[in-house]
Design brief:
The protein is of the alpha/beta class. The strands form 4 sheets. An 8-stranded parallel sheet has the order 4-13-12-11-10-7-6-5. The protein is globular. The N terminus is likely disordered.
C-alpha cells in the first residue's frame, strides 16, 4: 500500500506539502483581513522557501529527499556532544566503532578537519584496545600515494594498485548514481573500483575508472542462457581496458556459504542488461560454482580466465571457513603449478543488506584470523612472494589499514567507508528500496537526491585524506611504506595489567615449514594440513 501511495505521491514530501497548504490558507486569511494572516503567511512562506531550496541544493541528499523535515536530523547532529549519552549513542555497546568511524569519514570526505579536542574517546584500559607504537626516529615521506604491483609470473598485464580501494558492491544493490559517483571518484584518485558480482553496468563505464571485475556463482556478464560460465562473453568483457583485474568470488564475508536472489521486480532493463538475465525474472546466485568442483579445477579455472583475459591479474575472494578447504586449494597450487595472482580475504564482519541474522553474527572466520591464516599458509609453502593478498571487513580508517597490513595484507578494500563518503547515514533500509540518501535504492526519484559531481568529489577526498592519515602513521612509526608494518608494531591490551604485541598473540608459520613437517606448528596447521587433499574440498 505504501509503495502504491509513494508512486502517486512521495510521502517524504508531506512536510513540504503541509507548509504549502498552510501558506495558501494563511495568505487567504490575510487577504480577508484576519489579524494573524500576514504573520502566519510569512512563517509558512519562509518554510516553503526553505523546502524549495532543500530540493534544489546539491550538497545534502537527505534534504533533497526530505525537504524541511530533514533539517531535524542535522539539528540533532549539531548538538550531538551534549545529548549523545541520552539519544544518539544508545547503540554504542553493540557497535562501538560505527558512529566514531562515520564521523571521521564524513570529515575527510568533506575536506574538513578530523581533529578532536580532549584526547581519545576510547577506553585505553579496556581489553582489546590496540595501538601502533611510534618511533623517536621518525621518517618524512614525499607522497601518500602508496601502491602495490599485482601480478605473478604468469601475468602479462600486471596492475599497479593503490593500497586502498573500493570493495565489492553490485549495481542493483547500489543505485546507478552511487555506482557512477564511486567510479568517478576512483578515476580522479587513481584507485580501483570492485564491481561486485552484479557485473559491469553502463554506470561503471561512464567515467572510465579502473575496475576489478568480480565474477560470482551466477556468472553475471559472462553466462549462457542456463546460467553457466560462457568463455566468449567473458573474453569480450575482460578485454575492456577499463578492467584491470578479474576476481572470482568463492564466498562473501557477510554471508559465506549462502547464495542470493534479486527479486524479479528489481530486475530492471538496466540490471538485466548488465547481468545478462531476463527482465522481470528472479535473478539467482547459487551458493556454489558450477565451473569447478575440486581444488584442482579451481586452479585450472584461474589459468583459463588469465588466458582469456589476455594475461590480466586473476584471483579469487573468499571468507575462510573450514581450514582444510583452504589448505586443499593451496595444495592444488603446488600440484598444478598454477597460482592466482592475488587472493582477497573477506572477513565475516563485513556487511550487506541481504544477509540472514545468524550468518551476519555467527558464520565465517573474522578478518584477523582469516587473513593471518592465508598469509601464514602461503609463507609455509614458499608461495607468498608470488601471490598478493587483499582484504576487506569493516576497514574504514588509516589505522584499520595499518593493522590489516600488519596481519599480512598487501592492500585493503572498503565498502562502508566509501558508502559513508557517498552520504550513507546507516538508516539500515538498504533492502527496502527506501534509502533516504539515494545510495541503495532503484527508485529514480530517491536517486535524484544523490548528485554525482558532489559525491564523486567526496569519494576522492575520503580516499586521499585517509591515505594522508596513513602516511602520518607510517612516518610516526619510523617506516617508509605501509608494507613495512609488522605484528610487532601493533600492541593490544589483553587485561587490565598486561599488554602484548600482536606478534606474540597470533600464530606464525616459518617460511617453507609446511613443506617439511607439521609438528610444532600451530594447531590448525598441524591437524588439518595433513587431512587436506588437492582432489576434493572435503577432508581425506
Amino acid at each position: 500500500m505504501l509503495d502504491r501511495l509513494n508512486a502517486f505521491y512521495p510521502v517524504r514530501y508531506t512536510a513540504m506539502a503541509v507548509c504549502v497548504f498552510l501558506f495558501a490558507i494563511s495568505l487567504l486569511a490575510a487577504l480577508t483581513g484576519h489579524p494573524a494572516g500576514w504573520w502566519s503567511a510569512l512563517v509558512f512562506g519562509g518554510l516553503c522557501w526553505i523546502g524549495w531550496w532543500d530540493m534544489r541544493q546539491t550538497r545534502k541528499s537527505v534534504l533533497r529527499n526530505y525537504p524541511i523535515i530533514g533539517h531535524l536530523r542535522y539539528m540533532l547532529e549539531k548538538i550531538r556532544p551534549e545529548i549523545r549519552q541520552y539519544f544518539l549513542e544508545s547503540d554504542t555497546e553493540a557497535t562501538p566503532f560505527s558512529r566514531s568511524q562515520r564521523t571521521v569519514v564524513y570529515a575527510r570526505a568533506k575536506g574538513q578537519t578530523d581533529k578532536r579536542p580532549f584526547g581519545t574517546q576510547l577506553d585505553v584500559h579496556k581489553d582489546g584496545y590496540e595501538w601502533l607504537n611510534h618511533s623517536i626516529n621518525t621518517t618524512s615521506l614525499e607522497s601518500h600515494d602508496f601502491r602495490v604491483t599485482i601480478g605473478g609470473p604468469d601475468c602479462r598485464q600486471p596492475y599497479s594498485a593503490s593500497v586502498f580501494n573500493i570493495s565489492a558492491m553490485s549495481f542493483g544493490a547500489l543505485s546507478a548514481r552511487a555506482v557512477e559517483a564511486l567510479n568517478s571518484g576512483a578515476k580522479k584518485g587513481g584507485f580501483a573500483h570492485d564491481t561486485g558480482e552484479g557485473a559491469i553496468s553502463t554506470w561503471h563505464r561512464v567515467h572510465g575508472g579502473d575496475l576489478i571485475w568480480e565474477i560470482g556463482s551466477g556468472y553475471f556478464g559472462c553466462r549462457d542462457d542456463e546460467g553457466r560460465f560462457n568463455p566468449e562473453r567473458f573474453k569480450a568483457n575482460a578485454a575492456d581496458p577499463q578492467v584491470k583485474m578479474i576476481e572470482v568470488k568463492l564466498s562473501q564475508g557477510a554471508k559465506p556459504g549462502h547464495g542470493g536472489m534479486l527479486p524479479g521486480a528489481k530486475v530492471t532493463p538496466e540490471v538485466a542488461e548488465a547481468r545478462g538475465v531476463p527482465v522481470g525474472k528472479d535473478c539467482i546466485s547459487p551458493s556454489s560454482h558450477s565451473a569447478f568442483s575440486t581444488p584442482r579445477e579451481l586452479m585450472e579455472f584461474m589459468a583459463q580466465l588469465r588466458e582469456l583475459s589476455g594475461g590480466k591479474p586473476v584471483g579469487f575472494k573468499l571468507c575462510i571457513g573450514h581450514p582444510w578447504e583452504w589448505f586443499a586449494i593451496v595444495k592444488a597450487m603446488q600440484t598444478t603449478g598454477i597460482t592466482p595472482d592475488f587472493i582477497v580475504v573477506d572477513g565475516s564482519e563485513g556487511g550487506t543488506g541481504a544477509a540472514p541474522l545468524e550468518f551476519t553474527d555467527h558464520i565465517g572466520m573474522p578478518l584477523q584470523e582469516g587473513l593471518r591464516m592465508v598469509h601464514n599458509t602461503l609463507v609455509g609453502v614458499n608461495l607468498r612472494d608470488r601471490i598478493r593478498i587483499g582484504c576487506a571487513g569493516k576497514i574504514v580508517t588509516a589505522f584499520d589499514i595499518a593493522r590489516a597490513m600488519a596481519l599480512g595484507a598487501d592492500w585493503c578494500n572498503s565498502a562502508r567507508g566509501f558508502m559513508f563518503a557517498l552520504g550513507c547515514i546507516q538508516a539500515q533500509a538498504c533492502h527496502t528500496g527506501h534509502c533516504p540518501t539515494g545510495v541503495t535504492t532503484q527508485d529514480p526519484l530517491r536517486q535524484q537526491a544523490l548528485i554525482v559531481p558532489d559525491k564523486s568529489q567526496r569519494v576522492f577526498q575520503f580516499h586521499q585524506n585517509t591515505l594522508k592519515a596513513l602516511q602520518e602513521l607510517i612516518q610516526a612509526a619510523g617506516l617508509h611504506h605501509p608494507g613495512d608494518i609488522g605484528t610487532h608494531h601493533i600492541m593490544r591490551r589483553v587485561s587490565e595489567n598486561e599488554v602484548r604485541p600482536l606478534a606474540t598473540l597470533l600464530p606464525e608459520v616459518p617460511s617453507g615449514a609446511l613443506l617439511r613437517k607439521t609438528e610444532g606448528l600451530p594447531a590448525a596447521y598441524a591437524v588439518y594440513w595433513k587431512l587436506a587433499s588437492d582432489e576434493r574440498f572435503s577432508m581425506n
